[in-house]
């Protein structure tokens, strides 16, 4: 007898003795034992699947009715199996997610069949998933009490690569107009099971269909291109159990704590309860799938802390769902904590996780939100999200762009609503997160997106007390009929802005002026350029582009130089400064200041700086200004 067989038989005896030794008919043990066996009506005996999978031994003649049948995988070639098992997935731990998703699908299928048939014999059965780890024998077992498989179904679904039993089940389900909630079925590609061969030397599957009179079967393979299937004499309980005989370099997947962390990461929100060594591990509900009115503040706080790993509370909560044109469920949080300089400046991932049918696809779904929204946290779930074969990467860039646009617009609109609902609270939030909004305006090339973000900006105003900020929408509502532009003035403080000669000149017209104090604010407003079809103009540039055609001074103005004196002074200044200045103009609008200096080089300097810093995603946007410059050069030379 081979050494491996001897060791297996020894394990059978020791494991069986241990089960008998540990079990006694107390209330506690009866409760634990119920997890291992599906009780049948009186007069029939059901053997738990664990009888076969609680050991490392293959069934002997006492449990197998006939010699095992050997089959070759039907789907295409052994090379395809190798690709699926060895090269398809980026991370080995993904196989846990795939097996749990398959188990959950089996439970959902059983529920649908019970509803459709009205079969009361399975109506009250527990629908659960059990995971057992054995770090001594280096095995991992995942079992469900679901629909199970017949022999032909096992051959079709396990013996044919890229054939999805779940997908076929959904197609049949959709034909039944009375069927609902088909979105709870997760599988669609038919390759998830084969991820087990990333970590396993061999895999055993024990399964029995829910159909009356169907025997149980053992399916086994080492992933080399063939498999064996054999019926089992004893009546095994309904469901499917998969045992992975782990490779030596994958022994970490036989550790309870490792599996617990993986389950919480990927499958914490599947509808079925999941037990690891008889202890339930998925206790949180998928709040984004529930009615927002039924969720308490404490539940939101608990969920927020799970998603973010932080210990504060959400400042704002947005629950969003649509079915047309895209199926989308989202639960978005704005943190209470104030971001530090590293949160603002570092190129961090977005804080939103992508789920599909409550199964984690990407923990950091960078494609779903623009970079400037990286401060929001939460989850997005969509049945329509286009996944690749491994269900790890997103495909169909057009659809992803639509999802991104929908989410961005909804979050932006939500923040606008909050600003109207509670102005002081929003103003506090704005002071904490304004740099993200400004970054968004500078980064995006689309004017519509710029203006959507700009609705979130707030400014100090010449018509308001310092600190009472207003929006651009409020500014435009208060514009006088003859005013054509939105005016702003940059300065270190409000006091300096109010005493600026530039403000003095525009104040005489009675126009409201926005005061900005940060060094980057002028760059921001130049990048925004316009809002609601109104140009944003610095009061400095307004003076530089004064429509006054000549330097005529009104006669009789005793406060001013005479016309001759002004002309003489102008020529003297042009001679003294030479190439250092472009022009000298006579201005009669200043009362408190003798002169002002304007510059039109800022725009070019800003464009060059933005391109060099990599903040302009599309440098072609600068071409218009360069073309005009080239035309002037050609005209001169």
From TrEMBL:
<feature type="binding site">
    <location>
        <begin position="188"/>
        <end position="193"/>
    </location>
    <ligand>
        <name>ATP</name>
    </ligand>
</feature>
<dbReference type="GO" id="GO:0005737">
    <property type="term" value="C:cytoplasm"/>
</dbReference>
<dbReference type="Pfam" id="PF13589">
    <property type="entry name" value="HATPase_c_3"/>
</dbReference>
<dbReference type="InterPro" id="IPR020568">
    <property type="entry name" value="Ribosomal_Su5_D2-typ_SF"/>
</dbReference>
<dbReference type="InterPro" id="IPR037196">
    <property type="entry name" value="HSP90_C"/>
</dbReference>
<keyword id="KW-0963">Cytoplasm</keyword>
<feature type="binding site">
    <location>
        <position position="144"/>
    </location>
    <ligand>
        <name>ATP</name>
    </ligand>
</feature>
<dbReference type="InterPro" id="IPR020575">
    <property type="entry name" value="Hsp90_N"/>
</dbReference>
<dbReference type="GO" id="GO:0140662">
    <property type="term" value="F:ATP-dependent protein folding chaperone"/>
</dbReference>
<dbReference type="GO" id="GO:0051082">
    <property type="term" value="F:unfolded protein binding"/>
</dbReference>
<feature type="binding site">
    <location>
        <position position="391"/>
    </location>
    <ligand>
        <name>ATP</name>
    </ligand>
</feature>
<keyword id="KW-0143">Chaperone</keyword>
<feature type="binding site">
    <location>
        <position position="102"/>
    </location>
    <ligand>
        <name>ATP</name>
    </ligand>
</feature>
<keyword id="KW-0067">ATP-binding</keyword>
<protein>
    <recommendedName>
        <fullName>Heat shock protein 83</fullName>
    </recommendedName>
</protein>
<feature type="binding site">
    <location>
        <position position="98"/>
    </location>
    <ligand>
        <name>ATP</name>
    </ligand>
</feature>
<dbReference type="GO" id="GO:0016887">
    <property type="term" value="F:ATP hydrolysis activity"/>
</dbReference>
<feature type="binding site">
    <location>
        <position position="240"/>
    </location>
    <ligand>
        <name>ATP</name>
    </ligand>
</feature>
<feature type="binding site">
    <location>
        <position position="149"/>
    </location>
    <ligand>
        <name>ATP</name>
    </ligand>
</feature>
<dbReference type="InterPro" id="IPR001404">
    <property type="entry name" value="Hsp90_fam"/>
</dbReference>
<dbReference type="InterPro" id="IPR036890">
    <property type="entry name" value="HATPase_C_sf"/>
</dbReference>
<dbReference type="GO" id="GO:0005524">
    <property type="term" value="F:ATP binding"/>
</dbReference>
<keyword id="KW-0346">Stress response</keyword>
<feature type="binding site">
    <location>
        <position position="157"/>
    </location>
    <ligand>
        <name>ATP</name>
    </ligand>
</feature>
<keyword id="KW-0547">Nucleotide-binding</keyword>
<feature type="binding site">
    <location>
        <begin position="164"/>
        <end position="165"/>
    </location>
    <ligand>
        <name>ATP</name>
    </ligand>
</feature>
<comment type="similarity">
    <text>Belongs to the heat shock protein 90 family.</text>
</comment>
<dbReference type="Pfam" id="PF00183">
    <property type="entry name" value="HSP90"/>
</dbReference>
